[in-house]
Amino acid sequence: MGDTLEFSDIYQEVKGSWNDGRLRFGRQSVVYKSSKTGKVDSIPAAELSQAQWRRVCLGQGIKLTTSTGHIYKYDGFRDTDFEKISEYFKAHYKVELSEKELCVKGWNWGTTKFSGPLLSFEVSDSPAFEIPLASVSQCATGKNEVTLEFHQNDEAEVSLMEVRFYVPPGDTVFRDRVLSKADVIQATGDAVCIFKELQCLTPRGRYDIRIYPSFLHLHGKTFDYKIPYTTVLRLFLLPHKDQRQMFFMISLDPPIKQGQTRYHFLILLFSKEEDLSLSLNMTEEEVEKRYGGKLSKNMSGSLYEMVGRVMKALVNKKITVPGNFLGHSGTQCITCSYKASSGLLYPLERGFVYIHKPPVHLRFEEVSCVNFARGTTTTRSFDFEIETKQGTQFTFSSIEREEYGKLFDFVTAKKLSIKNRGFKEGKDDMLEDSDEDQHDAYLERMKEEGKIREEANDSDDSDGESGEYDSKASASDSSAEGGDSDREKKKRPAKKAKVVKERKPRKKKPKDSGAPKRPMSAYFLWLNASRESIKAEHPGISITEISKRAGEMWRELGKEQKEWDGKAEEAKKNYEVAMREYRESGGGSSAPSKKERKKKGGKSDEKNKKGTSGGGRERERERTTGNDSFKSREFISSEESSSESDRGKGKRKRKGSDELEEVASTPPSSDSGSD
């Protein structure tokens, strides 16, 4: 068996939510590191007193009890891990891993046992549930009950608000034992020291900070915050870029709350020139006994140094400061923007910190890769993108291009994955002002779209131009050489515009008001018959609602639709008969169609070329005596041809629809060249 046992994907319950991480059993200690927060729990092997193996919701779990009264619970083990862990505990910790069954009867009557910071409710000597007293935020007593209220976790999907226990009237022992271990912040006694009117960036404002032995009290004009030292994860002391101010940042988990706003970081801003003489509200013996030389009763120095020294001693955590990184300007930070707010990015030895709105702390362990991207507005800056293993991306933009080399070398030294590693060698090309050697994707896209539009215009011109224009164009192309062909190409756009303008009226077809109306479909026949009944069933219904309701009713008809299909077919036949009679009586559609003209061949064309005589005009008048407003197509075309021949002009008049132009007579051979 090896010296260590490691398990991944082990979960720890924190106020109703599961945080995954890695658990390692070593000879000297048991270490658990959270993947989410990076917080490390270290249990010395000499302090382990009891270990239990239990079946829980996430498979199998281990409950470890120390001689100091602390209890740690980890879930997510497999059934096969029991033997391996049990042997390791016997060999190295001299502790037996015992199996413990939980009660699942669902009874609400039992006994309560206090085991260190844990309240256990047992039924028949088997634990039904356990409450960490550190999660209790308030303990209230009634006539014969005690109510425990809990700290809320914003990341938990479901939160337990309170639990009520029945106790005999007048019994205060239960309440006192809960309060002795509960995380109920009570400002009893005097503060160790007070820092007045400190400038705070998040939450914004000026606050008096009162330091108590177990918590930190922020007192402002509007809001008060009590921060237990157990919620402090990290401390940072970072210099401002102007070298005249200092940031002191406190990382919190869980965060402090102000309405719906959560503050995961507490950021204080100090001036280096501010000095302070501090005297602790304790005797020298108490200071020495409690803090072991980390603090003294009387201290003096810079204000930020005094705050950092006191917080380091009370929280018992190290203060993180910048490492060896130096930017282009000689400072330990980089000016950039995040979410449209300007701030400072600090490359640290184990992560990145952005100050200040909103504050961001990214550990190297949770970074998947980084990317150097071109600035969106100018080539004088670039963007630095950080992607986490959870898929979240942080983009720090508007970084001066002079910082590129320093930042790239730092990221490479920390062995972070870089997406566009080739940009290191070509960084001058990426950040160059000149556009000669750059690949401009936008410009290339515009060129491609221009080519597509030109091809589309050429295809439209070839379809819309007449045969005479094509013959002239081909002749000119074949005969022209050198500059003539170039001039011919330059003249074409003007002709294209002219052709497009003349084509527009041709699309409009005149409506024949005397023609029979087209038959309605089966649905509309049914709708006309059913519209009144729908209105009667739904009084006040709108037109759109009638259509919607009618569509639903039509789909529900089923076989009854065949009846209306038959009526629609009968209406269609009547329409065809009426249309045939209308054409025979000299209606607007009595002219032969395109198919009929093709069948007849050149006979009709020869007749049209001869023009119409006076007798022909009389016959046309006789045909149209029944309706003075109606004129047949032959009559219109004959008038056009005769008027054009009299005037001797070389252009045809465009009147009527497309069919009228096709039937109209062609101009004489002398005018055929002009169009």
TrEMBL record:
It is found in: Nucleus, Nucleolus; Nucleus; Chromosome. Residues 447-456, 616-636 have a biased composition (Basic and acidic residues). Residues 516-583 bind DNA. The keyword Protease does not apply. Residues 666-675 have a biased composition (Polar residues). The keyword Acyltransferase does not apply. GO terms for biological process: DNA repair; DNA replication; regulation of chromatin organization. Residues 457-468 have a biased composition (Acidic residues). Belongs to the SSRP1 family. Component of the FACT complex, a general chromatin factor that acts to reorganize nucleosomes. The FACT complex is involved in multiple processes that require DNA as a template such as mRNA elongation, DNA replication and DNA repair. During transcription elongation the FACT complex acts as a histone chaperone that both destabilizes and restores nucleosomal structure. This is FACT complex subunit SSRP1. The lineage of its organism: Eukaryota, Metazoa, Chordata, Craniata, Vertebrata.
